[in-house]
Amino acid sequence: MSDRDDEPRTSPRPSRRLLRPAAAAGSGPPRGAGRFAAVLRAPARPGEPLFAQAPKAWQRMLPYAVAAVFVATLLPVTITVLAGDYGLDGGWAGALGVAQTVPLLLAVSRPLPAWALVLGADTVGALVLTGADRVAGHSWPWPPMTVVGYLALMVFLGLREPARTMAGVWLATGAVGVVLGFMAPEGVSQTTALLFVLAGCLLALAGVLRGLGDAQRRIAEQESISEAERARRTLLEERARIARELHDVVAHHMSVITVQAESAPYRLPGMAEPVQEEFAAIAAGARESLGEMRRLLSVLRSDGAGSGGGADGERAPQPGIGRIRQLVEATVRAGQPVELSLAAGAERAAPPAVDLSAYRIVQEALANVVRHAPGARTRVSVTHDAREVLVVVANGPSEDGTPVVEGSGGGTGHGLVGMRERVRLTGGTLDTGPLPGGGFRVAARLPLDAPTEEAS
């Protein structure tokens, strides 16, 4: 690898899975009034009552309660005004009052049919009022009670229907008013323009709220898709990088096998012909395996990919436990207080894959500490026994005393994803989490034996 391996890498960032607790305060689900406002902006699906997706039962029942209040208020007032002020017959007054107000209950789930019923009833009422005894001097064709009920219906309709439907409703309202205007009795105060303007304003306001709900839902869906794609891309990038490094480790051993097999007849004179042919077959098989490996990984060695510094860096030896001390010294020179406890002989005890994985885990952990807990005291420990290598990186609170949890900043999540992939490659385990007094801890157990088939 290049000299850049001696420095803590700061490009990979912690996993987005650990980012959520810290980000929840700013981007989590709305609560209280905010959540209710989100429910108000989000329209229900066709045939579903308004607010059907609200989190609480009282919120789901609120549209029905509002509609019931309008019906209970407007029904007696409409009958009284039509009979008392307009001088309409009691039977007609009662029938028109029911027809003009009760359909508001249907508007909660079926606003368009409710609008058709109400507009039809209001139109019939206007025609009937042309023959009323005391219609002169009063509002026509839309009495005050009719205007209030119709505007309430516009709110229900605007929260549920698309813009094209709302435009059709608004134009139909104006058209009916214009047609009725030619039949206006003498001395009435026409309310056609009033209802037309107010209905348009409420439809526009409800449509804006509905559009905000649609936009926020689409943004949330795109963010969810982007999050999944980002996590998938991060995982693939880390696997590609591990594959390149694994290729370097395996290629070294395959090259040794090739050289030993080809040089065996010269190092061991007097070898029988069948044995020489066997060694030649081993050498040929090793060379063919190397060629296949290079062909399969050629895509992964494109320019700009990986963590190396170009072709020269890719040909350099891979780092291992023996270079962790240099990595820690470089981190200390960058201003981060780090203590190192490195068991003697750990680099000799670890096989190549474990040796490289231990170095990369320490490198990722120190890079995250530098980014998310600058100035925090950090301890790096690498120990081993006959079965495994234990790598522990733990940091305290940041320099200002604030407890810092890994992943408190934004990022693509390369760090912990890469650690998990490396630990899984060796058949080990990875334990990460915040410390009680603040800070973060990363502990990796890397077995010295080759991983079993189940672990792989």
UniProtKB/TrEMBL annotation:
<feature type="compositionally biased region" description="Basic and acidic residues">
    <location>
        <begin position="1"/>
        <end position="10"/>
    </location>
</feature>
<feature type="compositionally biased region" description="Low complexity">
    <location>
        <begin position="20"/>
        <end position="32"/>
    </location>
</feature>
<keyword id="KW-0418">Kinase</keyword>
<feature type="transmembrane region" description="Helical">
    <location>
        <begin position="142"/>
        <end position="159"/>
    </location>
</feature>
<feature type="domain" description="Histidine kinase/HSP90-like ATPase">
    <location>
        <begin position="357"/>
        <end position="449"/>
    </location>
</feature>
<keyword id="KW-1133">Transmembrane helix</keyword>
<feature type="transmembrane region" description="Helical">
    <location>
        <begin position="190"/>
        <end position="209"/>
    </location>
</feature>
<feature type="domain" description="Signal transduction histidine kinase subgroup 3 dimerisation and phosphoacceptor">
    <location>
        <begin position="238"/>
        <end position="303"/>
    </location>
</feature>
<dbReference type="InterPro" id="IPR003594">
    <property type="entry name" value="HATPase_dom"/>
</dbReference>
<feature type="compositionally biased region" description="Gly residues">
    <location>
        <begin position="407"/>
        <end position="416"/>
    </location>
</feature>
<keyword id="KW-0472">Membrane</keyword>
<dbReference type="GO" id="GO:0016301">
    <property type="term" value="F:kinase activity"/>
</dbReference>
<keyword id="KW-0597">Phosphoprotein</keyword>
<dbReference type="InterPro" id="IPR011712">
    <property type="entry name" value="Sig_transdc_His_kin_sub3_dim/P"/>
</dbReference>
<dbReference type="Pfam" id="PF07730">
    <property type="entry name" value="HisKA_3"/>
</dbReference>
<keyword id="KW-0067">ATP-binding</keyword>
<dbReference type="Pfam" id="PF02518">
    <property type="entry name" value="HATPase_c"/>
</dbReference>
<keyword id="KW-0902">Two-component regulatory system</keyword>
<feature type="region of interest" description="Disordered">
    <location>
        <begin position="1"/>
        <end position="32"/>
    </location>
</feature>
<keyword id="KW-0547">Nucleotide-binding</keyword>
<feature type="transmembrane region" description="Helical">
    <location>
        <begin position="61"/>
        <end position="84"/>
    </location>
</feature>
<dbReference type="InterPro" id="IPR036890">
    <property type="entry name" value="HATPase_C_sf"/>
</dbReference>
<feature type="region of interest" description="Disordered">
    <location>
        <begin position="397"/>
        <end position="416"/>
    </location>
</feature>
<protein>
    <recommendedName>
        <fullName>histidine kinase</fullName>
        <ecNumber>2.7.13.3</ecNumber>
    </recommendedName>
</protein>
<dbReference type="InterPro" id="IPR050482">
    <property type="entry name" value="Sensor_HK_TwoCompSys"/>
</dbReference>
<keyword id="KW-0812">Transmembrane</keyword>
<feature type="transmembrane region" description="Helical">
    <location>
        <begin position="166"/>
        <end position="184"/>
    </location>
</feature>
<keyword id="KW-0808">Transferase</keyword>
